[in-house]
Amino acid sequence: MNNKFIFVLLFSTSASFGDGSEQACGGSPKDIVFILDESGSIYGPDFKKQLDFIQSIIESLDVGLNRTHIGVMTFGTTERVIFQLNNYTDKNETKAAVANIKQIRGQTYTHLALRRLHQEMFSSNYSRPGVSRVAMVITDGESDFPKLTKEEAELCKNAGYVMLAVGVGAAVVQAELEAIASTADDVFNVGNYSSLETLKKKLVSQACKPCENKPIDVAFLLDESTSIWGYDFKRVLDFVQSIIDYFDVGPNRTHVAVIAFATKSRVIFRLNKYPDKNRTKNAVANIKQRRGNTNTHLALEELRTNVFSSKYSRSWVSRVAIVITDGDSSNEKKTKAEAELLKKKGYRMLAVGVGTQQVQTELETIASTADDVYKVDNYSSLMAIKDKLASKACERESVQLNLRLQK
User: Could you read off the pLDDT of 284-296 as tens digits, one per residue?
Assistant: First the structure.
């Protein structure tokens, strides 16, 4: 399905960011449009700060032909497209185009920019299918037509974009920022344009969330065998909770399930059990380890016949399983057979091996592809792969759906 993000940054002016950020959105390409307030209430030096701020965000993004694409629009009395998403694929050229924007001033017709966003900039003429679409709107005051602004924002959000709204100064109307943004967590405020820099990391993180507005059914299969010390099992639970933080958990969004396995497998909770992120994470935190042998095949069978069955899982979303284990299964032949049955159904299988006791070939047997295998030296190192793992869980959703439909 086609998932889109809107990152709306409403700027009157921008601040320069300190650099040193890692490349964001790597492995999870986005189409990001900056929507910049250039109305008469914004002084020239503040508008320049806004442009500096946008350039600093672009510097931290993984911009490229098959990576993140950038578009920019401004609005005053009229809206104008500075450049489309497909105009530049080089980071330096993109930043130079932003630096050369001249402020025209005028009123605050925010609704015209939002309308052009969904009618043109995020249309198939300029935006790519299958990538997240993010709009960043930055403004320093209330729009001249609040009702129209709200209506256009609803059309954008209903299209599946993720909308981020940034208000600068004391003249912004918080209710309007919330009407523009996808959720309350997507609203940001600063006292002046010189303070924009303080938002950079949060904004980039919000824009690059790989799973926002991407409903999936994801199941964690957790090794609780005797070879895992209690404090390491606690690290696994902490890791799973950190991955859940990436997901857009909700009744019509991402659903999460957990299976633990040792001598027996057991369903901790199914996909339709918890409707929100906090209760899901609390349920994970409360799992008690039972220990035993490593009968991985029983967990895979439980996944296929129970957790991913039509009784609990949705047919119209991607189904992703993340298997975390520290050793070879007790029955390699049955593990391989169950993994093959799951992959034939089009489920995405991710395998995480911890320590030195696993055989690489078994991890590859469980995983959908060799690229879906992850290895760390110990449980303390799990957090180092959380970004990559979450991105992998949420990518190529339409491909997975097509695979299942072809079966």
Answer: 999 999 999 999 9
Task: Using the structure block, give the residue that is written with the tokens 């047997």.
Answer: 365
> Is the Cβ–Cβ distance between 220 and 257 less than 8 Å?
yes
- 192 vs 251: CA distance, rounded Å: 38
The answer on pLDDT for 326 being more than 70 is yes
CA dist list (Å): 207 to 185, 202, 211? 12, 9, 10
- Which pLDDT does position 10 carry in this prediction? 45
Give the H/E segment covering residue 52: helix 44-60
The percentage of the chain sitting over the pLDDT mark of 90, rounded to a whole number, equals 68
| Exposed / middle / buried, residue 371 (Cβ in 10 Å: 0-12, 13-18, 19+) | exposed
Residue 139: both structure tokens together: 């403004």
- What is the Cα Rg of the chain in Å? 23
Half-sphere exposure of 19 (CA within 13 A, CB side): 8
Written as one letter, the residue type at 106 is G
Q: What is the pLDDT of residues 245-258, one digit of tens each?
A: 888 888 888 999 99
Please tell me the distance from the alpha carbon of residue 244 to that of residue 133, in angstroms, as a whole number: 21
